[in-house]
Specification:
154 residues; alpha+beta; 7-stranded antiparallel β-sheet; 3 helices
């Protein structure tokens, strides 16, 4: 089975600094995923910056729930690269994936910033359904990103 690749982009009026803060806050990440998915996070952590990051080392183990209550997966959240204010690359071992790579970037633009997600993943089973679901979730995530980050600068 070959890997699936998707790219998602959103232009927002928020500055790249505000965009970075929004996309690295655990509350922001949760808002992006809701109502499709909910991931558990360490108690007391409010942002990725609150976690001890060692590239390539697992940040935390997370359970993933469909619609907030149905356990469907787990992830050993692992950042292999982080560029403060610019982006990160996540390669997290997951129960449902042979490969999960999420490269998220923040780029400064003349009118604010652009959020770009590059996804590469290889499901362990039902590739077509999984690809459709991941595409749907990330379309939703970018809709939430545009709404939240455009409100910041309004």
């Amino acid at each position: 089975m070959s890997a699936v690749e998707f790219t998602f982009e959103s232009e927002v009026t928020a500055s790249s600094a505000d965009a970075w803060g929004g996309i690295t806050s655990l509350k922001g990440i949760s808002a992006e995923m809701w109502p499709y998915l909910r991931m558990t996070v360490p108690p007391g952590a409010e942002s990725i910056k609150d976690l001890e990051i060692t590239p390539g080392k697992m940040l935390f183990h997370s359970r993933i729930y469909l619609f907030g209550f149905l356990p469907i997966d787990h992830s050993d959240l692992t950042l292999i690269e982080i560029r403060d204010g610019e982006g990160f690359v996540e390669e997290s071992p997951m129960g449902s994936m042979k490969l999960w790579r999420h490269d998220r970037r923040v780029v400064t633009t003349a009118n604010g910033s652009r959020i770009i997600d590059y996804l590469t993943f290889e499901p362990r089973w039902v590739k077509g359904v999984t690809a459709w679901f991941i595409h749907t979730v990330f379309q939703h995530r970018h809709k939430v990103i545009r709404r939240r980050l455009n409100e910041i600068s309004a």
